[in-house]
Amino acid sequence: MSEVTSSKIQSTRVGMDAAAIKQSILEHLVHTQSRFPDVASESDWYNALAHAVRDRMLERMMVTAKTYKANKSRTVCYLSAEFLPGPHLANNILALGIWQEVQEAVAQLGLDFESLLEEEVEPGLGNGGLGRLAACYMDSMATLKIPAIGYGIRYEFGIFRQEIEDGWQVEKTDKWLSYGNPWEIPRPRLRFNVHFGGHTEQFKDIDGILRVKWIPEWRVIGVAHDTPVMGYGVKNTNLLRLWSSEAAESFNFQAFNTGDYYGAVNEKVTSENLTKVLYPNDEPEAGKRLRLEQQYFFVSCSLQDMVRIYLQSGDPLDQFHHKYTAQLNDTHPAIAIPELMRLLVDRNQMDWDTAWHVTRNTFAYTNHTLLPEALEKWPLDLFKKVLPRHLEIIYEINSRFLDEARMKIHGLNGHLEKLSIIEEGARPQVRMAHLAVVGSYKVNGVAELHSELLRQNVLPDFHALWPDKITNVTNGVTPRRFMLLSNQPLAHLLRERIGCGWVTDLDSLHKLEALADDPDFQQQWQKVKRRNKERLARHALAATGQKIDPDSLFDVQVKRVHEYKRQHLNLLHIITLYNRLKDNPGLDIPPRTFVFGGKAAPGYFMAKLIIKAINSVAEVINRDPDMDGRLRVVFFPNFNVKTAHCIYPGADVSEQISLAGKEASGTGNMKFALNGALTVGTLDGANIEIREEVGKENFFLFGMTEAEVSALQQQGYHPQDYCQNDPELKSALDFLASGYFSHGDATLFRPLVDNLLNGDPYKVLVDYRSYVDCQARISEAYRDRQEWTRMSILNVARMGKFSSDRSIQEYTNNIWKIASVDVF
Ligand code: GPU
Questions:
Q1: Which of 278, 368, 443, 475 has the most ligand 1 atoms within 8 A of CB, as the residue to mutate?
Q2: CA 707 – CA 659 distance, rounded (Å)
Q3: What is the C-alpha separation between 119 and 114, in angstroms, rounded?
Q4: List 442, 565, 632, 642, catalytic entry
Q5: Catalytic site residue 368?
Q6: 20 to 30 A Cα–Cα from 462, which one of 7, 427, 443, 727?
Q7: If you average pLDDT over residues 541-557, what whole number do you get?
Q8: What residue spans of 439-566 are helical by DSSP H?
Q9: Whose C-alpha lies nearest to ligand 1, atom 9?
Q10: Average pLDDT of 316-330?
Q11: What is the mean pLDDT of the chain?
Q12: Is pLDDT at 32 greater than 70 in this prediction?
C-alpha cells in the first residue's frame, strides 16, 4: 500500500477555516450520524461537530506518538484511578485555535453554538479535587510538550448525578456513555490479561534457579480506550488511556474444569462488573474487595502496556526506568510497585536486586491527604485472596526494607514497627502509603504546609530515614479551562489590556497590577463580574427555580461535602445573620446570596444531613418576607466540571474554611481567586500560599493555625464551653436543633448539633467567632466597591503561581527529570 502523506489527509478532512469545518460537520452528520440536516437533532449536530473537531486532533496525536517514538523520549505515565476532564468540545476547539472558525461554521449552519456545547455529557470519572487535578496536569503536560500518558479506568458509570428531593441528596446513576462518546478511540486489539486469586508454587527453572509461579483462579481482560489530550497552541497531543474490563472466554479455570457452566457465566458477569462504577467515596476508604480489584486491574494493564511499548525499542528491561517514570496519584495505584516486580522477576526472569533498582527508580508518589482514615490499608486476608503473589512480593520488599532500615538507624525492632509495610494487630493490614514510600524515588505533598506535616506527623520515621525523599509540589489549575474557556468576559478584557500571554504564562497576569487603581479599568472589571453573576443567576434559576439577585454579594462554597471542609460553619454564620436581621430589622448589611454546591458520599450520614440542613435553612430564609432582597441561600445541585464553569466566575467571595491541617491543598480556592473572588479562609493547604501571593490585605483570614489546633487537641477540647460563652453561637445551634428550620421537627438536625456539642472533631465551634467577625469585615469591605474591585484585580494579578503549568514544570525539573519534545 502506498503511503498516504499527511498533507493529503489534511487537504480533505482537517482544514482549519470555517468553510472546511462546516463541510466536515455536514459530512459527519451524514456519514457518522446518518442524518439529513432537516431531521437532525441537537445531539446529532453535537456529534457531527465533535467528530469534525476530533478529526483535527487525531493526526496530531499520531504525529506526536511517532515523534516521541523516533526520539525515544523519556515519558511520564500518570497513574490515577480518577480523571475528571470535564466537557471536551469547547476545550479542544480552544486548544486547536479555531474558536472563531467553528463559531462561523456553526452560525452558517443556523445552529446555536452554546446549545451544542450544552449537549455534551461530561465524563465524571472522578470524585473531586484529586481527579480534577489529574486532568489539569494532563492539560499542562501536553501544553508544556512533555511526553505523557495518563492511565486510568474507563468506568461505565461515573460519579453519580446528584438530585435534591425534599432537601435531601438523591443519587442517580451517571450513564454518561448512553449516547456514545465521540472523544474516545476504542483499541479492541490492545488488550491484556489480568489475573486474580489462586495460589503460588515454587519451581526450579532450567538453570536450576528457584522461581515462583502464580496459579491464578480467574482472569479478566482489559481493553484500551484512548482519548487525545491536546496541548494549548502546540501540536503535542498526548494520550489518556483508560481500561475497560471484558470477560475472558474461559475465565474461571476451576469452574470450567468441573463443568460448572452456569457458575462460570456468573463469573463472566463479575468480570464485566469490574469497571462498572466509580467508588463515590472522596476520602475515607471503603476497604471493598472490588475496589482493590479495580486498582490492580488498571495498574496491571498499564504496566503491561508500558513494558510492551518499551520492548519495541529493543532496549534491555534493566533500563526501563530511563525510558519511564510513573507518578502514583495517591496510593490507589500503589499496587504497581509489586506488580512491576512481578513482571520483571517472574515474567522476565530478572534477579531481585536489579528488578528492585528498576522499580524504585520508576515510581514517584504523590500523597493527597492527612486524614488518617483516608490512608489506604488492605486487610491481609482480603489481599491474599485477591493477589496472593503480590502479597509474597510485598513481604519480601518489606523484609529487605526493614533490614536496610535496621542497619541505617542502628535501632531496635520497636522502632521498625512504625516503618513496616505490614501493620500487625488483630486484623493485620497492608499499609499502602508505606509501600508507596518504600517503592518510590520521591514522595511529594501538594502544598507547603501539607508536605511539612507529612514530614513531621504522618511519615516522620521515613523522613528521618531518607531526609531528601519527601518534597513539595504545590497544586495548580489550568488557566485554559478555568479562565479562558469558562470566563470569556474576563478573557476578552485581559486580551484588550494585557494581551493573551497569560494563557500559557500565567505570571504575566502581573501586568494587571498597574491597572488596579485605574477607574476606567475598574469599571470594566465590575462589568465582567456583573455579567458572570447574571450568568450564574440564570443557571441557578434553571437548576433550582430560585431567583438570585446579581446586585447582592455572591458568597460561594462549592466542593465535596465533608465535615472537615466545614460547610456547617458557613451555615452557622448564615443562621447568625438571619437571627441578627430578625432581631434588628433596621440592620444595614449588604445583601448577600449564599451559594452552595457539592456531593456527599452516599454512605456518609453526617454529610448528607448537612446538605439537608443547608436546604432547610434556605427554604425558611428564602420564604421569609423579612429577608427579601437581603439574604438568600441556594444549593446548586450536581456540582461538576460543567456547572463549575459558570459558578467560579460568578463568585464575589470564595469560602475556603477547612480546619487548619486538614485540607491537603484545595484547588477550588485557586479557581475562585483566578476569577476575581476574594477568599475567606483559614491557614490551611494552599490557602496559605495564596495569601502569601495576593497579599494579606487582600485575603480575609480567620481561625486557628495548625499549631493551635494541635495544641488545643493536646490540652483537651470542650466544645460546650465555646457554646456557653458565645450567645450568638448558642442561639444559632438552638435554632437548628429546635425544629425552626424543619417544620417543627426537633429531632432532624439533632445528630448534627449533638456532633458539634459532644466532640466537634473539626472544631467548628472554636473558629465560629473568628469566622463570623471576619464575615462582618467582608460586608464592610464590600460597601466600598472601588476598594473591593482593586482587591479583586490584585488577586487575579498575583495568582500566576497557581497555574498547573508551574506545578508540572516543578515535577519535570525536580522529580521526573524529563525534557520537552517539539512536535511539528
Ligand atoms: N483529595 Br486522598 C481528593 O479529592 N480525593 C482523595 O481521595 C484524596 C484527596 C484532594 C484533597 O482533599 C485536596 O486537598 C487536594 O487539593 C486534591 O486532592 C488534589 O491534590
A1: 368
A2: 11
A3: 9
A4: 565
A5: yes
A6: 427
A7: 98
A8: 448-453, 460-465, 479, 488-498, 519-544
A9: 368
A10: 98
A11: 95
A12: yes
Q: What is the pLDDT of residue 262?
A: 73
Q: What is the mean pLDDT of residues 205-225?
A: 95
368 lines ligand 1 (CB under 6 A): yes
Q: Which residue has the higher pLDDT, 6 or 225?
A: 225
CB of 283 shorter than 6 A to ligand 1: yes
Q: Sheet holding 700-701: strands in order across? A: 631-636, 592-597, 553-558, 653-656, 678-681, 700-701
What's the rounded Cα separation, in Å, for the pair 200 and 134?
Answer: 36
Amino acid at 144: L
Tens digit of each residue's pLDDT (9 = 90 or more) over 659-672:
999 999 999 999 99
Strand partners, 247: 220
Task: Cell 488483630: give the residue.
Answer: 426
3-state helix, strand, coil in the chain (%, to 5): 55, 15, 30
Distance from C-alpha of 114 to C-alpha of 800, rounded to nearest angstrom = 29
Model confidence pLDDT, tens digit, residues 628-639: 889 999 999 999
Q: What CA–CA distance (Å, rounded) separates 127 from 285?
A: 13
Task: Look at residue 7 in the predicted model and tell me its pLDDT.
Answer: 47
Q: What is the dihedral of CA 320, 321, 322, 325, to 10 degrees?
A: 120
| Paired sense of beta strands 553-558 and 653-656, if any | parallel
Length of the chain: 824
* Distance in angstroms (rounded) separating the CA atoms of residues 314 and 276: 37
Q: Is 560 a catalytic residue?
A: yes
Residue type for position 343: L
Residue whose CA is at the smallest distance from ligand 1 atom 3? 130
Crossing angle for the helix pair 519-544 and 488-498, to the nearest 10 degrees = 170
pLDDT of 162 above 50: yes
DSSP-derived 3-state class of residue 686: coil
For the record, the C-alpha cell of 163 comes out as 438530585
64-110 per-position pLDDT tens digit: 999 999 999 999 999 999 999 999 999 999 999 999 999 999 999 99
Q: What is the Cα–Cα distance from 470 to 459, expressed in whole angstroms? A: 9
- Residue ranges of alpha helices (H) inside 605-667 are 605-623, 641-647
Which H or E run includes 143? helix 129-143
Q: What integer pLDDT is reported at residue 412 of this predicted model?
A: 65
664: Cβ below 6 Å to ligand 1?
yes
- CATH 3.40.50.2000 domain residues, the chain: 72-86+122-474+810-816, 498-801
CATH number belonging to domain 72-86+122-474+810-816: 3.40.50.2000
Cell of 289: 474487595
| Helix (H/G/I), strand (E/B), else coil: 199 | strand
Per-residue pLDDT, 1: 37
DSSP three-state, residue 132: helix
DSSP 32: T
Task: Please state the ipTM of this predicted complex.
Answer: 0.98
Other CB atoms within 10 A of residue 534 CB? 12
Q: Tell me how far apart the 2 most distant CA atoms of the chain are, in Å.
A: 92
**Residue 202: strand pairing partners:** 212
With a 6 Å cutoff on the Cβ, whether 446 touches ligand 1 is: yes
- The torsion of the CA quartet 656, 661, 663, 668, rounded to 10 degrees, works out to 30
Cell of 760: 466537634
pLDDT digit string (tens) for 255-314?
A: 666 777 777 677 677 788 899 999 998 877 677 899 999 999 999 999 999 999 999 999
Confidence (pLDDT) at 251: 55
Confidence of residue 485 (pLDDT cuts 50, 70, 90): very high
Question: What architecture is the 498-801 domain classified under in CATH?
Answer: 3-Layer(aba) Sandwich (3.40)
Label residue 499 left, alpha or beta by phi (over 0 means left) and psi (-120 to 50 means alpha): left
Q: In what order do the strands lie in the sheet with 237-252?
A: 185-196, 218-230, 237-252, 148-153, 75-79, 324-329, 363-366, 440-445, 470-472
Question: What percent of the chain shows pLDDT beyond 90?
Answer: 92
- Respond yes or no: is residue 211 known to be catalytic: no
